[in-house]
Design brief:
This protein has nine helices and ten strands. By secondary structure, it is α+β, with helices and mostly antiparallel strands. It folds into two domains: about 90 residues, Phosphorylase Kinase, domain 1, CATH 3.30.200; about 240 residues, Transferase(Phosphotransferase), domain 1. Strands 1-2-3-4-6-5 form a six-stranded antiparallel beta sheet, covered by helices on one side. The N terminus and C terminus are likely disordered.
Amino acid sequence: MSSLVAEASGARGPHAGLVLDGQFRLDALIGSGSMAHVYRARQLVVERNVAIKILRTELLARADVLARFRREAAIAARLEHPHVAIVHATGTVPSVGGHPGGEPYLALEFLDGPSLAQLLEREGGALPLGRALHIVLALCDALGEAHARGIVHRDLKPENVILVHRGDDADFVKLVDFGLARMPGSADVQTRAGAVLGTPRYVSPEGAQGRDVGPAADCYALATLLYQCLAGRTPFDGEDALQVLLQHATASPPELTELDRARGVPEPIARVVMHNLAKDPAARAPDARALGRALVEAARVAHLEPEQIGLSSTLLGSQKTLTPVLGSAPTACPSSQRSGSPSGRSIHAKRPAERSVASPRRARVRRAAAFLLYFVVGALAALLVAHGVGLLAPPPRAEAAP
């Protein structure tokens, strides 16, 4: 369970009723994990709901857990992006009544939507191509921003992807839980040689072997997540974590389009997914935004229209009156048609080449040619007018000789 998913459990929890720092009233427990409790709370000053994440009391003596908790706050404060959950404040639970207090807390953006894991379970394990690409392109942009700042998430999985309703987008992505992330200059003990970080089914080959990981490891996790959204399963699974890690390190993943639920995935998109499941990090995309651009280009080659890859709407509403450029980089907050192609046709159906959207270069050439033609016609018209004025003017009268 993600620590930020809002669940109407109604449970009070051990901290319910407390007011933290005079502004956060804890109303109800909405989630618990091995590391923290999460409460729905009310920020009294501005009258809005927030999520309060409180470290479990029994973990206060764990230096590594405290470091992870503080790292999440530090990274979220540094990483401002529409698809990353906001940290509003941090603090410490006070000693009240019989409660000793002292636990650190985070006041986070309240996310009233399901996790991707819950969505996949509800949808039978897989999603239509357009919906899956929409979610992954947003993640590429969020993680790409992190990579540009030297941050590697290291724990991308469906439980850490929350989908909320924003504007015209019912699947607006929020990436959460940077507790295992690596920051530039960080020296946490979890990065020591031999330490395996993350969730086994999404760990990169280098991560499974306890080696240092970089942005390419997040790209591997992104490819694994997209593979799962399209095929209904991850590339590797097993009875225990060690078996799964061994497969990541040594086994070849099944070809995506050879799996029953993914047979209709266009070959260019399948190639990008498989390319980013390579064992060698250098063979993958260098960062998440490069992976996103590769996916958009693959969709262009497959003659998929913008709305078919989740670029059909924005927070302001539908883009039907606009002319989006399919070959451009993914936008910061793309959205998707929940049911795939608006025409009702299969989202995997290829379109004729002449229906594809023009490339940015071709559009620029056309604009330049139009401008040049306009300039030449205008210049000729000016010359003709000037010449005409000269022809129509009466000839000068001859002066009388003295």
